[in-house]
Amino acid sequence: xxxxxxxxxxxxxxxxxxAALLQRLYRWTAAAAAVSPPVAGQLAPPLTVxxxxxxxxxxxxxxxxxxxxxxxxxxxxxxxPALPPM
Length: 86
Hints:
mainly alpha; 3 helices; 0% strand
């Protein structure tokens, strides 16, 4: 299970941390597309928004978006056990 958690209030979100989460979710989505294209299709738009936040330097917004995506991934994995592990 992927847990992103709330953004730290006292520390700035690291660009590298957000980039690593983006890469992890992108790779999972690509692997999931082979098993269930509709699930991957549902994740693509919010993942694109997260990338746009990242590119704009809005790392807290990107992390919030990634947290929502992680929740979607966890729900999808519960419904479709054939999906790859995170």
